[in-house]
Amino acid sequence: MKIKNKLIVSHIVAMLAPILGLWILFILVKDFNKEVEFKDYINNMKIFEKYGDTLNNVELYKNPKKELLSQIPKQDNIKVDVYDKYGTIIYSSVENYFYFSVSKENLYKNLYDIKQSNKFITLKKPVFEKEEIVGFYEITILRTEWLKGLNSRTAVIIISVVSIFIMTFVMILRVINRKINLPIGLLVKSMKKFAIGENEEIHYCSNDEIGELILHFDNMKKQIGQKNKELREEQKSKEYMISAVSHDLKTPLTSIRAYTELLKRNDIKEYEKESYTSIILNKCDYMSNMVENLLMYSVLTTEYEMNLVSVEGEEFFDMLSSGYEEICKTEEVIYIKEVGVKGNYSVDVNQMIRVMDNVISNGVRYTEKGKKLYLGIYSEEFGLSNWINSKTRERLEDIRKDKVVIIVKNEGKGIDNQEIENVFKPFYKADNSRRNTKNSGTGLGLSIVKLIIEKHGGEVMIISEKQETMIVMLIKKDNGGKYDD
Asked: Transmembrane segments in this chain: where (predicted)?
């Protein structure tokens, strides 16, 4: 139940409790009246009959002597008034009563009627002598027992109403404390703990607004914790990148300085001069490539969006796989490609060219001379080539529906299983790669490949065995990117 509804219910209960008590009082008094009224009627009729035997004596009215008046019974709860035929009071059972006359209209009013109120029952009757009125008497009975019962019930109801009100008030306070004050206190305490870096769980489950607030606060804490974890990992990554960049730049800079100092000598020969100059230029190209890759990696790790366009698969991927024959020939690597693609695909052309450059360069770098480098690009309409082992083919068949799969396989030393997880980390290099400057890359190529493919909505994996390594990339057909016609 929502807090608003709880407060409305509590207010309604607080208002209805006294009303309910008063209603119960009314019902009890009404029932008590019905119960007592009949008994009172019987008892009062007996009293009226008893007093009537004495008061119907005409001599009381014709000759009101003290001896006759003293015969009228007296009771504390009964008042008797005797009038002559003119309305003058000739007797009253109340001591020190002031005697006066009543008007004829009031004298004849309500004769024979038994008037009943909460306090009194009254009967007024005339007295006749030979069909002539000689006087009147009026008997008033105080309802003592009825008043006692009424007062006791009133006291009980008042106590009950007060008790109900107090109980209702206490109940409402407990509900408010349990449903509002307690969870808010837990939330405030958790917020204070969270502000100083401590995480305290809030054990409160409810569907009201405070429950939703606590749930959102817990989710916010988890999100902030996740963000902080990502920031720490990013900070570690940056520190690692700075360390790696410093290390990887230090070696070529040292070489450049050394060969530059050699060029300053006057005794070097022309072929040595050309060799040193070539080495310096190669080192400069290496550093330039590293800076370019570092810049691209930094861009891709932001909210950078791919400039996706819709391309015809066969034409695009055939173009993408061309132009690497000369590079492989120069490195004495046999380049074998196979393209079988149908359908349209949403790609960033420039970034996909960068991907292909990086994976081919990586493949050439780790392919032994005289060995083969394979490139296969297939959509689901085409079967996978036989140079892919059967186990890998079965694995890829299960996941390449509505996708194009790009496979780069090189023949050479494989990657240890414990190192596969680290291959896509920035600046990661195997130890033998760091020692071999000929085969050394910047360490960012595959990291950039992974970021670009993932921004295309695809995925990248590495499958490695003892004498071969495959980089597998999958991209969905028209994966929902924004097209630029």
From this structure: 7-29, 155-176
- Rounded to whole angstroms, the Cα distance separating 461 from 112 reads 114
Q: Are strands 372-379 and 334-340 parallel, antiparallel or unpaired?
A: parallel
Q: Which helix (H) or strand (E) holds 461?
A: strand 459-465
**Model confidence pLDDT, tens digit, residues 143-152:** 877 777 777 7
The identity of residue 193, as a single letter, is: K
Residues for the chain: how many in total?
Answer: 485
The one-letter amino acid at 190: S
Quick check: 394 and 402 in contact, CB under 8 A? no
d(CA 335, CA 280): 30
DSSP 151: H
The single residue listed with the structure tokens 């038994």 is: 114
Q: For residue 358, what is the domain's CATH number? A: 3.30.565.10
In the structure, what pLDDT confidence band is assigned to residue 266 with cuts at 50, 70 and 90?
confident
Separation CA 457–CA 389 (nearest Å):
26
Instruction: Among 148, 171, 204, identify where a domain stops.
Output: 148
Contact criterion met (CB below 8 Å) for 59 and 108: no
* CATH code of 70's domain: 3.30.450
Within a domain: residue 140?
Answer: yes
If residue 10 lies in a helix (H) or strand (E), which one and from where to where? helix 3-55
- Domain tally, the chain: 2
CB 341 within 8 A of CB 401: no
Three-class SS of 409-432:
EEECCCCCHHHHCCCCCCCCCCHH
Phi, psi of 171 (to 5 degrees): -65, -45
The rounded Cα 472 to chain-centroid distance in angstroms is: 41
Domain of residue 110: give its range.
Answer: 3-148
Contacts of 37 by beta carbon, 8 Å cutoff, 6+ apart:
116
Domain membership of residue 210 (yes or no) is no
In a domain, 169, yes or no: no
pLDDT score for 481? 41
SS3 of the chain: helix, strand, coil, percent, to 5: 55, 20, 30
Dihedral of alpha carbons 390, 395, 397, 400, sign = negative
Final residue of a domain: which of 148, 178, 212?
A: 148
HSE (side-chain half, CA atoms, 13 Å) at 370: 0
Do residues 136 and 107 lie in contact, with contact meaning Cβ atoms separated by under 8 Å?
yes
> What sign does the CA torsion over 324, 326, 327, 328 have?
positive
Helices (H), 56-130: 59-62, 66-69, 104-108
Residue 375's pLDDT band, with cuts at 50, 70 and 90, is: very high
The answer to whether residue 156 sits within a structural domain is no
